[in-house]
Amino acid sequence: MRKEPLILNVDDDEGARYVKTRILQVAGFDVIEAATGGDALALAASDAPDLVLLDVKLPDINGLEVCRRIKADPSTASILVLQTSAALIHRSDKIRALDGGADNYLVAPIEAEELVANVNALLRLRRVQGELLESEERFRQMAENIEDVFWMLAPQDGRLLYVSPAFELLWGRSPDVLRDDIGSWIAFVHEQERQRVRAAFERLMETGVYDEEFRIVLPDNSVRWVRDRAFPVKNTAPGRERVARVTSDISVRKAAEKLRHDADSRKDEFLATLAHELRNPLGPIRSAVDLLRMTGSGEAQVQERARDMISRQVDHLVRLVDDLLDISRISQGKITLQPKNLELKALVSSALETAQPFITARQHQLNVLLPEQDVWVYGDAVRLAQVLGNLLHNAAKYTPKGGTITLNAAIVGEELMLTVKDTGIGITLDAIDGIFDLFAQGDVAPDQAQNGLGIGLSLVKKLVQLHNGRVYAYSAGPGTGSTFSVCLPLSHCQPAPPPEAADAGAQEAAGRQRVLVVDDNPDAVEMMQMLLEASGYETASAHDCASALERASAFRPQAVLLDIGLPGTSGYEVVRRLRAMPECARAKMIALTGYGQARDRELALEAGFDFHLVKPVSVNALIAVLEERKPAAAQAAPG
After folding, report:
1. Which of 96, 251, 613, 629 has its CA 20 to 30 A from that of 188?
2. What is the 3-state secondary structure (H, E, C) of 199-246?
3. Global pTM value
4. CA-to-CA distance for 261 and 269, rounded, in angstroms?
C-alpha cells in the first residue's frame, strides 16, 4: 500500500521537469514522470497517481485535452490535475483549463513554495472529500439499521397498529408507552409532533407524498436531524387503508453537510481576503512606477518618495508571503529552529526594526521597559524577533491613531515574560478564546483599511510553542485595549562574544569584485545589475547555461549570483560546470533562488554553492555575502 502521495509530473522540457520533480521529492512526495500527453494518459490509468502536474504545452496532445480525457474517464476522473503553463497566457485559456476539469492553474515562474503549497492544498481538499464520503457511507449503513416503519396507524380510528424499535433509539423511551392512544404519543414525543402528523395527513390527501427533514431537540438537549416520510398502505381487505410513516436519523449526514459548508465558506472568505491584501500594495506600487516614468530628473524629492513607497509596499508583500509559508511549514512539521543563546536587548532591537516604521506611521507612542541587567533566552533569533514583531504590529493595527503601546519585559521565576499592551479596540469575551485560531480576526480600527490575513497571531502561538513557551491574551472588553503575554524559559549561559567584522580595507577591496548575474528573468537581472553597480561592483549577465559558461570564460568573475530554476539546465548543473572552469575556480558561487527549504540549502551546498540566498534578498545581506561574511540571513531561508 502506498504511503506517500504519488505525483505524475508531465512536461516535455527536461530541465523544467527535473526541477519540479526535485522540488516535489524534497517535499516528501513520490514522483513519476512523463514527457508526452500519450504517456501521461497511460500512466494515469496504470499507476493511479493522486495528482497530475500537467504542463499545457506538450508535443503530441495539448495539456488541456489531456486534462479533459483524464476527467472524462471514470477510472481516472478522481485524479487531481494541477495545470501549469511555462509562459503568460490569455485569461480565456485559464478559464478553458478550469472548465475542462483542472483543479487549479499555475503560471510560470512558479516558486518552489508556491508549487508545494498548491499541491498540499489540493491533496488536503481531496482528503476532506474522502472523509466526507466515508462519513456519508457510515451514515448510510447506520440509516439502514435505524430506518424502519416508524409507526403504522389506522386513520379511521387513530389506533396505533405498529411502533418500530427505532422509536426507542431516536427518542430514548420505550414504545410501550404508545399503546394507549395516538394523542398521548404525539404530545409526549415533541411539542410540534401533533402539527407534523396533521400536515402529513393533509399533504398525503393533496399530493399523495409527504417527505420532510427537520431538526429536533431531545429531552437530554441533544440535537438530531430526522427525515420523515409518510404514505398510504393498501390493506388486503377491500376499503381498508393504513398510513405508514418511515423515519430516518440523518444527523451524521447533516453534520457532514455543515462541515462542508463551513469549510467552503472559510475558504472563500480567506481567498477573498488574500486577493484584497495582495492588491492593496500592488496599487501604490503601480502608481509609484507610473510617477517615476512621468517625473523629470530634477524632481529628486518626488522620485525619492516614490522609491520609498515601493520599498514599503514590497516589504508588506514579503511579510504576507512569509507568513503564509511559515504557517504551511509549521502545519506540516517542516520548520527547523536554529536556537542559540540570545540577549533580550538585541532580540527587542531586532523586533523593533520591523515594527517601528508601522508604529510611527500610525502615530503611536511606544514605551519599552526592559530590565537593567542582561537577560538571556535560548531560541531562534529570527523566529523570536518575528513573534515580538507580530505582536507589536498587531497592537499598532488594532489601535486607533495616536494610541499608546507598551512593551514590558520581566523575569518571573525561571521564565522571561514579554508583554505587549495597547490602548486599542479591545477584544470581546466571545472572541478572545479563538483569537489565536488560524484566520481569526477582530474588527479593525476605523482608520486602518488593511485587515491582514488573520494568521499573524496563529503564527505567534505556534512559534512560541516550538520554543517550549506559552502565550496568553487578555482584554476587559471592547474599547479597553488588549494585552498579549509571552512566557519563555530563561537561559543562564552567556555566549562568547561575536567575531570581529572584516576590516574596512577588506570591505573596500570586496566592493570592486566582478559579479556575474545568471537568471532567466530579464527584469530581475537588470535590477540586480543596477543595484550591484550602484554599490561599486562590476557586473555581467547571462540568462541560461550556455550563455553563463561563455560569459564566465571571458568575464572571469570573482562571484556568481546564480538562479537555480534555469530553463533547460538547472542551476545545480550550471554551478558544477562553472566550478570545472579555470576562470571560475576561486569564484564565490551564490545561489539566489526562490527555493527556501532546509533541504534546498543542502542540495545547493552539495552541488558546489558557497552560499544560499532566498528571494527577495536585501542589499545588506547580499553585500555581506560578497564581502565573505556569513550572517544568519546568508545561510538559508527561515524554516
Report:
1. 251
2. HHHHHHHHHCCEEEEEEEECCCCCEEEEEEEEEEEECCCCCCEEEEEE
3. 0.40
4. 12
- State residue 484 phi and psi, 5-degree precision: -120, 130
Q: Can you give the three-state secondary structure of 125-167, one letter per residue? A: HHHHHHHHHHHHHHHHHHHHHHCEEEEEEECCCCEEEEECCHH
User: How far apart, in whole angstroms, are the C-alpha atoms of residue 439 and residue 434?
Assistant: 10
For cell 539566489, the residue is 592
Average pLDDT, integer, range 320-343? 69
| CB contact set of 70 (below 8 Å; sequence gap of 6+) | 41, 44, 52, 76, 77, 79, 81, 101
Question: Which set of grid coordinates corresponds to residue 159?
Answer: 389506533
What is the set of domains in the chain, with CATH numbers?
6-134 (3.40.50.2300), 147-249 (3.30.450.20), 261-331 (1.10.287.130), 339-489 (3.30.565.10), 504-634 (3.40.50.2300)
Assign 16 to helix, strand or coil. helix
Beta bridge partners of 592: 613
- Inter-residue contact 609 to 564 (CB < 8 Å): no
For 288, the enclosing helix (H) or strand (E) is helix 251-294
Give me the half-sphere count of Cα atoms (radius 13 Å) on the Cβ side of residue 60.
Answer: 10
Q: How confident is the model at residue 33 (pLDDT cuts 50, 70, 90)?
A: very high
DSSP string covering 57-75: --SSS-HHHHHHHHHHSTT
DSSP state for residue 497 in the 8-state scheme: P
**Cell numbers at residue 13, please?**
522540457
> What are the percentages of helix, strand and coil residues in the chain, rounded to 5?
45, 20, 30
Most distant CA pair in the chain, distance: 114
Estimate the crossing angle of helix 251-294 against helix 300-331, to 10 degrees: 160
310 touches 289 (CB < 8 A)? yes
